[in-house]
Design a protein that fits this description.
The protein is α/β, with parallel strands linked by helices. About 35% of the residues lie in helices and about 30% in strands.
Length: about 260
């Protein structure tokens, strides 16, 4: 076996994603697959045992997130990591931690080849220590309570950053959310619940099961019927505040009168 052969591991809870990665890696003469796992708990044991050079790591899976897995490993033996995710926001986090690259599902052979080439270059130039430090810095940052001040939206190989104050309101669009700003709308592949968890609850209020509003942009409230309200934004947009989300109204009134 060549001395420079790359020992790779796959961690993903989705069988189709694992099968695709397995097929693409099997075609690489310089790569050997040394392990696979379907959840965070299995992944930690496998990675501690095999200590691969390169890791394809799903961000969200049962038994712990990608960051839970990385935090459980020996910081001196962290593998070069390519994040695999269906969520645009985690693609940016891959760059923030100086990971090798990310693969946004669904990805094709061309995108995979680019990520693997970056991995080869990184491993060949000995940048593993630099990457390990960046990952550890992120893991420490995640333990702090500070809220995100920007949100990211992927558009192909480009990633746009939106300051939270730019967002007027957010609406559900099936398995996506639409972020509305004064300059236009951006589609984000993420659920309302996961987006809401990453927002400042003192600024962003859930006023309907499919609507979150930035309170800084609310101009007026109008009583409607059956305990519901119309929420008028400063750009003229009218939204409905459902009776089931009166807590949002109470928060808003407390903020104005406090």
């Amino acid at each position: 076996m060549p001395a420079n052969r790359i020992r790779a591991a796959i961690v993903d809870d989705e069988p189709p994603a694992r099968a695709l990665l397995r097929m693409l890696l099997a075609a690489q003469a310089d790569v050997e697959i040394v392990g696979e796992s379907t959840n965070g708990i299995e992944a930690v044991s496998m990675l501690r045992r095999e200590e691969p050079d390169l890791l394809f790591l799903d961000v969200q899976m049962p038994g712990g997130s990608a960051f839970d897995v990385l935090q459980s490993l020996n910081p001196e033996r962290l593998p070069a990591t390519i994040f695999v995710t269906a969520h645009d926001s985690y693609a940016v986090k891959a760059f923030e931690v100086c990971a090798i690259d990310y693969l946004l599902k669904p990805f094709d052979r061309e995108r995979f080849d680019r990520a693997l080439d970056r991995a080869r270059q990184t491993l060949a130039t000995g940048r593993q220590r630099e990457i390990r430090k960046a990952i550890l810095d992120l893991l420490r940052e995640r333990e702090r309570p500070a809220r995100k001040q920007r949100i990211s939206v992927a558009d192909g190989d480009r990633i746009h950053f939106l300051a939270l104050e730019e967002i007027l309101w957010i609406e559900a669009q099936g398995n996506y959310v639409q972020l509305h700003t004064s300059k236009g709308a951006h589609l984000l592949r993420e659920t309302m619940t996961s987006v809401e968890r990453r927002l400042d609850p003192d600024r962003f209020l859930r006023i309907h099961r499919s609507t979150i509003v930035n309170a800084d942009h609310i101009q007026e409230l109008q009583r409607w019927f059956r305990g519901e309200y119309k929420v008028i934004l400063n750009n003229g947009t009218e939204l409905k505040l459902s009776q089931n989300y009166r807590e949002g109204l109470d928060k808003l009134l407390g903020r104005v009168n406090g």
